[in-house]
Amino acid sequence: MSSDFYATSIVPFAPIIIKICRAYTNTQEDFEDYYQEVCLQIWRSHRTFDERSAWSTWIYRVSLNVCMTLLKTQKRKRRVFASDALPPELVEHSRAFADESLNQLYGAIRQLSEVDRAVILLYLDEKTYREIGEIIGTNPNNVGVRINRIKDRLRRMLDEKDHRSDVA
Amino acid sequence: MRKTIEATWREGFLDPTALVAPKVNDLYTRKSTHIVDRIQRMQRINEIAILIGAPIAWAWYSVLGMPYGGAILCTAWVGLIVVRRQFPHITRFDAPVGVDSYHYLKAFQQWLRNRLAWGRRVQGHLYAVTFLAIAIGIGESEPGQLLIRTIVENFPGVRLVNGVPLVLIVAVVAMTMVVDLFGGVIFDFDVSTVYRNVFRKVDQMVAEMEELRG
Description:
- The complex is a heterodimer.
- By secondary structure, chain A is mainly alpha-helical.
- Chain A is about 70% helix and about 0% strand.
- In chain A, helix 2 (about 15-25) crosses helix 3 and helix 2 runs antiparallel to helix 6 (about 115-125).
- Chain B is mainly alpha-helical.
- Chain B has one domain.
C-alpha cells in the first residue's frame, strides 16, 4: 500500500473504519489488529472496486466483512464466546471515547450478534435501508423491522445498566 | 432522562480526537509480531510433539515386536531436538532491538531461511534413519522373520549375515541411501505441509511492506 493510497483513500474514511472496528472489539489491542487488517484488505481489494457504489459504501462493506470474519475466527480459535455470551460486567470495555454514554452504547452494541452490529452501525451512520441492505446483502424491506428490534434491545440493555448503577 | 441512541451516537463523535486514523507505518507493527509469535509457537509445539511422540512410538513398536527399530527411531528424533538446542541461533530468534516492523520481519525472514537451511542439512538425514529404523523394525517383527524364512527356503544358497540374507541388507542399505539422497526434498515437503501458509504470509507481508516503503 502506498502512503498516498492510505492518505487519500483511507484516512478520509478512517472514522467509518474506527467506528466499525470498535463495535467488534473489546480491547485496544484487538481494535488495532482489526483496524490494520481492514486497511490492508481495503488496499488489497481496491482494484476490484467496480465504482457501481460509492467508495464509502465499499469501505463499509470491506470493514464489516473483515470484522465479522475476524470475530468468527477469533471465537473459533480461542474457544471463548463472544461478548454477547458474557455478562456485560465481565466484558473488558475499551474506554475508547471521552464520552461515557457513547462507551456504554458501544458496550451494548458489542452484545449484539455480528450482523445486528453491522445493521445498527449503518443505521446510526444514517445509511438508508436500501444502502444497508446493499452493504450487508439483505432485503431492504426487512431492514426497518430489524432496526426497530435492535433499538429496543439496545434500549433495554442500557436501561438495565442504568438501573444496576442506581442500585449500586 | 436518557438520550436517544441516535443522539448518543451523534454527540459522542463530536469530540474531534475520537476518530483520528493511526499512522500508516504502524499498520504492520502488530501483524509482524503476531506472525513471528505464531511461527515460533508452532515450532515449539512441533518440538514438544516430537519429544512426546518419539517415546510413544518406541513403546508402540515394542508392542508390535520391533523394540530395536523403535529405539533407533526414538533416539534419532529426540537426538535431533537435543542437537538443535545446542545451537541457540537456530532455535531462538533474537529480535533486533529498536528497528521498525519491516526490518524486524526481514530479520525474521532471514533467520527462518537459516533455520530451514540447517534443517535441510541435518534433519534431512533423519528420514533415512527413520527408514532404516522401520526396516530394522520390520526385520525383527514376525512378518519380517517370515519373509527371511521364505527367502532362505526358496534360495538355500543365499549368503546370510547374522541370519539375514545379504541381498536383503544390500537392498535396505541402497534404499536408505536413496532416501538420504532425497532427504532435502522430503524435508521441504514435510515443512511445507505444516508451515506453508504461514511462510507464505511472511513473504507476502514483506512484499507488501516493500511496496509501502517504495
